[in-house]
Specification:
Elements (H helix, E strand, L loop, with lengths): L5 H7 L5 E5 L6 H15 L4 E6 L17 E2 L4 H10 L2 E5 L9 H9 L3 E6 L10 E4 L6 H11 L8 H14 L10 H12 L4 H9 L4 H12 L2 E3 L4 E6 L1 H6 L10 H6 L6 E8 L4 E8 L5 H8 L3 E2 L3 E6 L3 H11 L4 H4 L2
Parallel strand pairs: 1-2, 1-4, 2-3, 4-5, 5-6, 8-9
Antiparallel strand pairs: 7-8, 9-10, 10-12, 11-12
Helix pairs in contact: 2-5, 2-6, 5-6, 6-7, 6-8
């Protein structure tokens, strides 16, 4: 975002408006944290602000302040479409292309007449927003929302609810502050959020200490399925729909599984392949260390994208064909993976 756009945005926000805030499909901690934080902030100025998530999200995020007011487009389409059509402003957070909201919601956003504001840290943004705050160097969209509120001159208005939501997004998107995008500025922001009322210990407990017995069993199966290709410094995990069903899979249960593969000594590229009969695809999460770009890998081969060291994708083939394709592609990157 160009700094001289801030006065225009302040003018837009100077009087109460109908505002819709949208995260990406299958929202994670950063998506829900940033949208809820922004919603709390906008309501301080009496805006009629509402969050419409494309679909449901994991239970471990549903304790966040304000979660009970979130609409889900997938199950509340009529009400959601009405709000989108009536919106004067639409914020899209933690994604930068309409298709990331899912096909149905993408259609609704494309038809919307509202002024669009994008806040996002993923690579290669589409050009749909009048106001775009895009910075791939940022740890998280939540850190960007903090900066956005600060640029509007309202850092002192960040209360405990806003601080809690922002803390969750930064914590989860940085892998509890261990990923390379975590900077000294990130820690400054975190310190400020704690000072403003974010209870870091309780937030961590609420977000991570929520394992069910069946989820731990599923993790065990995932680790049993772990395969290593040492000569290419790659490891991958597979989970079939039958295995998900066996362990009573719930949305969010596989969150972080791919990081176990990446944690292996000598591994710099990790993937998890998860079969989804409902979506008729293989869902893919990719992680890397160093300079190997899983964003580019996913964009070229698996209809996805994201960040240099964290990206997602999909395959329309079955699991066996998908894994065979993945393995056949790897030798093309032998030099990159030898770093």
């Amino acid at each position: 975002m160009i700094t001289n756009q801030i006065p225009e945005i302040k003018a837009l926000l100077s009087t109460p408006k109908n505002i819709v805030i949208v995260p990406h499909r299958n929202p994670d901690g950063d998506a829900m944290g940033s949208t809820l934080a922004l919603c709390h902030y906008l309501k301080l100025y009496n805006h009629n602000a509402v969050i419409i998530a494309p679909n449901d999200y994991p239970d471990f995020l549903k304790w966040l302040p304000g979660d009970d007011s979130v609409l889900k487009f997938e199950t509340q389409q009529q009400e959601s479409n009405k709000l989108i059509n009536a919106a004067e402003l639409i914020f899209t957070l933690d994604f930068n292309a309409f298709h990331r909201a899912g096909n149905l919601m993408a259609e609704a956003l494309e038809k919307a007449t509202a002024t669009m504001i994008m806040i996002d840290h993923h690579q290669q943004p589409d050009n749909y927003a009048k106001y775009t705050y895009s910075d791939v160097s940022m740890s998280s969209t939540c850190e960007m929302v903090y900066n956005f509120i600060e640029m509007l001159g309202d850092a002192e208005k960040i209360n405990a609810d806003i601080a809690t939501c922002l803390y969750v997004g930064i914590m989860t998107d940085t892998g509890s502050f261990r990923f390379p995008a975590t900077t000294s500025r990130t820690h400054e922001v975190i310190g400020s959020l704690i000072a403003k009322g974010a209870d870091n210990s309780q937030i961590h407990n609420n977000t991570f200490d929520t394992n069910s017995y069946s989820r731990l069993q599923l993790l065990g199966r995932a680790l049993q399925n772990l395969k290593v290709i040492p000569e290419l410094r790659t490891a991958y995990i597979t989970l079939s729909q039958a295995e998900l069903d066996e362990f009573n899979f719930k949305k969010g249960d596989t969150e972080g599984f791919v990081n176990y593969a990446l944690s292996l000594k000598g591994i710099i590229f990790a993937a998890i392949f998860i079969e989804s009969h409902q979506d008729k695809i293989i869902k893919i999460s990719l992680r890397s260390k160093g300079e190997f770009s899983v964003n580019e890998f996913s964009r070229v081969h698996f209809h996805g994208g994201g960040h240099t060291n964290a990206a997602g994708g999909r395959s329309d083939d079955d699991m066996q064909t998908t894994i065979s394709k993945f393995i056949s592609i790897l030798p093309q990157y032998k030099n990159d993976l030898a770093q």
